[in-house]
Amino acid sequence: MTYLWVKWIHIMSSTLLFGTGLGIAFFFWIAHKRGDAKVIAETARTVVIADACFTAPAVLVQFATGVWLMMHLGMPLSVFWLRTALMLFFVVGACWLPVLWLQARARRLAAQAAATGSPLPDSYHRTMFWWFWLGWPAFLSVVVIFWLMVLKPTAAT
User: Fold this and answer.
1) What residue ranges do the domains of the chain occupy?
2) DSSP for 101-129?
3) Per the confidence metrics, is the pTM higher than 0.85?
4) In this predicted model, what pLDDT tens digit does every residue of 15-36 receive, in sequence order?
5) N or C: which terminus of the chain carries fewer CB neighbours within 10 A?
C-alpha cells in the first residue's frame, strides 16, 4: 500500500472511532436518562453490537496503520506528539475495555428489570456511574490525540 492510502485509512478509522464512540455514548446516555428499563436494554443491545462491528475494528486499524505510518516515515517514539498520542491511545483502551463490560452488564440488568416489571436495581445505577466516569478520560484523550495528530507539536508548551 502506498503512504497516502494508509494515511487515508488511518484518518478514516480515527474518524469512525471518534464518531461511533460519541454516538454510542450519546444514545446510551439518553436511554439511561429516560429510565425505561426496556428502552435501556434495547439501546444497550445496539450499543454492544455497534462497539463490536465498528469501534473494535477501528481500534485495530487505527493502531496498525499508525504503526505502519510511523515505521514508513522512520519516526522514532521519542517524537513528543507521537509518544504522547500513543500513551493516550492506551489510556483510551484502558477506559474502553471496562466500558464494554459495563455496557453488557447494564444491558443485562435493564433486561432483567424489564422482564420482571421491576425498577432498575442499584447495581444498574452503579454500573452507569462507572460507565459515565470512564467515558470522560477516554473522550478527552481522543480529543487530545486529534489535536496532536493535526498540530504535531515538538514539545510540551
Assistant:
1) 12-151
2) HHHHHHHHHHHHHHHHTPPPPHHHHHHHH
3) yes
4) 999 999 999 999 999 999 999 9
5) C
